[in-house]
Design brief:
By secondary structure, the protein is an alpha/beta fold. It has helices spanning about 5-20, 45-50, 60-70, 90-100, 100-105, 135-140, 150-165, 210-225, 245-255, 270-280, 305-310, 315-325; strands at about 1-5, 25-30, 55, 75-80, 115-120, 145, 170-175, 180-185, 195-200, 205-210, 230-235, 235-240, 255-265, 290-295. It has 2 domains: about 1-185, 3-Layer(aba) Sandwich (Rossmann fold), CATH 3.40.50.970; about 195-325, Rossmann fold (3-Layer(aba) Sandwich), CATH 3.40.50. It contains 12 helices and 14 strands.
């Protein structure tokens, strides 16, 4: 296995998919010779040329609309949205076109489309470069929503998304693009969408994805010195949800903490809490807790304020400690 970053794993997945299938192409803002703002597509324009790596105008509705049309016509587009914050002008194309195509045709048509979107807080990102949008898209039947946390998952799940027949919103945790390294397998075989148990524990369960997974793991490691055994579940796929893995860890520990960057109100954690309340209520020994962003319109520009807004390891530790001793 090769050791690489999440960003390198994403780039490798696209390159290999394009080498294997001439129908695969990339489009988005600055994805061509510049290689994208994060360099996710670096080298692809040189290797595959401008017909398969398309620089587009700054018009997200056009980017996704073109991709939907290409998918219907038999191509396999990978549309890059430069920052997840910019995806909202394309909501009509995603919600009313891509997500409904299979349903409206009684299964006769499909929309094999991948929309890549770097998401989550990053120092200096401010209001329009640090949003978490997973709850918005997880709400829409017909869309798949993947949120990998490791290089191996970024590679394998992106390969699966490109091969699939349904539209996928592929969320990439940009703050850990280059800081998290790990082994990546040769080829996508063996990669699935089931939730991954990253750490075993008996006292309390924490569920997370993306960057928050790594902060949850750090909190679990710290609490181990206090003889508190934290189980850490990485959801990986938000839609479809591996509900059985969620319920299984709750039944095991009797305590659940959900961690995500987005604000708590109507966040993805609320859906997880509702599922557990409906199907595993009598296995709970304490109230479900959420560690999430506060009720503010966007991420502060000031790095110090950002550190206070995005859930920290210390906040997760305090919540898990309270739960474990409830």
């Amino acid at each position: 296995m090769a050791e690489m970053t999440i960003l390198e794993a994403v780039r490798r997945a696209m390159r290999e998919a394009m080498e294997e299938d001439d129908r695969v192409f990339v489009l988005g803002e600055d994805v061509g010779p510049r290689g994208g703002v994060f360099q996710a597509t670096a080298g692809l324009h040189r290797q595959f040329g401008p017909e398969r790596v398309l620089d587009t105008p700054i018009a997200e509705s056009s980017i996704v609309g073109i991709a939907v049309g290409a998918a219907i016509a038999g191509m396999r587009p990978i549309a890059e949205i430069q920052f997840a914050d910019f995806i909202h002008p394309a909501m009509n194309q995603l919600m009313n076109e891509a997500a409904k195509l299979r349903y409206r045709s009684a299964g006769a048509w499909s929309c094999p489309l991948v929309v890549r979107a770097p998401y989550g807080g990053v120092h200096g990102g401010g209001l329009y470069h640090g949003q978490s949008v997973e709850a918005l898209f997880s709400h829409i039947p017909g869309l798949r929503v993947y949120a990998p946390s490791t290089p191996a998952d970024a590679y394998g799940m992106l390969r699966l998304a490109i091969r699939g027949e349904d539209p996928v919103v592929f969320l990439e945790p940009k703050r850990i693009y280059a800081s998290v390294r790990g082994p990546v397998p040769d080829g996508p075989d063996g990669i699935g969408l089931a939730a991954a148990l990253r750490r075993q524990g008996e006292d309390v369960s924490v569920v997370a994805w993306g960057m928050m997974l790594h902060r949850a793991l750090a909190a679990a490691e710290a609490l181990a010195t206090e003889d508190i055994a934290v189980e850490v579940l990485d959801l990986r796929s938000l839609r479809p949800l591996d509900e059985e893995a969620l319920l299984s860890t709750v039944r095991k520990t009797g305590r659940l903490c959900i961690v995500h960057e987005d604000n708590a109100m109507c966040g993805y954690g609320a859906e997880l809490a509702a599922r557990v309340a409906e199907k595993a209520l009598f296995h709970l020994d304490a109230p479900i807790r959420r560690v999430a962003g506060p009720e503010i319109p966007g991420l502060p520009y000031c790095p110090a304020l950002e550190d206070d807004v995005v859930p920290t390891v210390d906040r997760i530790i305090r919540t898990l400690r309270d739960l474990a001793t409830y």
